[in-house]
Design brief:
With 382 residues, the protein is an alpha+beta fold. The chain contains 14 helices and five strands. Strands 2-3-1-4-5 form a five-stranded mixed sheet, with helices on both faces. A hairpin with a 4-residue loop joins strand 2 and strand 3. Helix 4 runs antiparallel to helix 5 and helix 4 packs parallel to helix 6. The N and C termini lie far apart (65 Å). This is diguanylate cyclase. It comes from Xanthobacter agilis.
Length: 382
Amino acid sequence: MNMAVAVLFAASYVTIALLNPGNRAPIWFAASYGVGMLTPMAQLGLAYSGWTTPFGFLVYFSFALALLLMVPALAVFYRQSPPWRLLAAIASYTFFTVAVLSQLHRNSWAYELLYQSPYMLAMLACVGVILHRSRRRTSDLLLAAMFALLALHFPVKAVVAVRIGTGAAVTNYIDSTYALISQVSSGIMLVATGLVLLIKALQSVILEKQADAETDPLSGVANRRGFDMRAERMLAGAAPQRRPVSLLILDLDRFKAINDTYGHGAGDAAIRAFGAMLMRTLPPSALVARIGGEEFAVLLDRTGEEAAQLHAETLRLATATCAEDGAPAFTVSIGVTEIGPPYEMKAAITRADAALYEAKEGGRNRVVCAPRRHLQAVSAQL
């Protein structure tokens, strides 16, 4: 049963890896379960082949390696460098325990606790990686809790081993009551943890694909689809509290001249630099999107007209120096409007576009706010 479960999990992660070639974490997870599959195979070989020493070592080290592989797998999953020094320390400790175990009596407290300790340390390392490197969302905390329970499970197994015994010799293990308890309990814990991890991995892949579909690849900000979806959520959240939201429409000045004079590569560089500047300058809560060729939109939550105008002036000034090295400098014109009840995005875009047109007609490189009377007039028409 445990072999079959390990194969299913390994196959699941291999499938995820094949469908998402740029994602390395599923490969690590598949490797962990693939190595773990060797443990029950070695236990059968230990019981029925008579090759006590090689299969005994394979049982111990394959399970330890499978659990240790989960540590870098989680680190890669959370987009961090694996803790190689910690892994090397636990691996060295595992080899040390083998030398000490040969000097101890089987079924003694010292033997059983020492035998289970490398497994416990590997699982505690997994907990540490999750808590240290994740954003500690509910799903992350649940995953950390599952690995913590799995870590606690190993010293509990040591207690049970001492109480009921694991067989007079290593070859008698598979016929003991402890073997049944150990295999079933470990199987249940590993399956439960594996299911939470698999759900988390699939959720990550789905969110990554969704982000790709809603992101403009050149500028790195949201595309029109992403803007429309997130703007709708922002306005829906603002409406019950009637809090202000402001919209900025930004258009790069004389962008066609940049393409015609310097080539489309320079135009792409301008779009890239401008998108990076917006993300760098605006608060993290701002929704930034490229909604047209050289046109961008910014939605600012909890921001009234005056604060939005200050943000727009900051962006206008930052634009003059944001060009990439060797690329031509450029400027931006910005239309600003405050969004209030009834929180209609279509009307807000109309007002901001009108203000942007006024900025362009007024000589470019300017910020123009849609007057409040214009806001009220457009809202009344709708």
